[in-house]
Each structure stands twice: as structure tokens, then as C-alpha cells.
Predict the 3D structure of the following.
Amino acid sequence: MTSRDPARAVLAACAKLLGPLDHVITESRPWSSATFDGARHVLRFTAAASDSFAAAISELQIDIRRGFVADVAVTVQEQAEGVTSYLVEALTIEEG
């Protein structure tokens, strides 16, 4: 999958592993280091519970246009009343 918006590409990868995502909120902000430019993304959503999601998303190759996903991790996963809430953070790097 290729997407113009890196946050949407990460969300699509999450949905591929979890199924439909609900209550989606995304925040993105520019990021740079001495050698790279990109963005940090925070994705909040609810979805089906999965014990293997955190490991699977960190190993999945997520394609984005003109760049790559350098890091993606589930930083919070909470379950309450049969609903699982996720907080996923990603770092994308721009190329060319």
C-alpha cells in the first residue's frame, strides 16, 4: 500500500492487523534531526483486542510515498468494558 499521508498509511496497517478502527484521532508534527526530516505521528483509536498487535505492527513493513516508516510502536493498550483503546506512535522519514 502506498499513501500520500504517512499517518493514513500507518492507520491502514493497524486496520490490516486489527480490523475496523473506531474513534480515530491522529496528530502529526514535523520532526528533524541533523540528517533527516520527517514527522512524528500519534494515533489513537479503538478496535478489537489483540495480544499480538504490538509485536506485529512493529515488524510490519509500511510503505509510504517518498519516505519510510522508521519506527512504530504501541505505547498504550487499555481494555475496558469490552473495548480496547490503542495509542500508536510512529516516526516517518522523508526521502528525496
About this structure: The radius of gyration is 13 Å. The domain at 6-94 is CATH 3.30.980 (Threonyl-tRNA Synthetase; Chain A, domain 2). The mean pLDDT is 93. The helical segments are 6-18, 53-59.
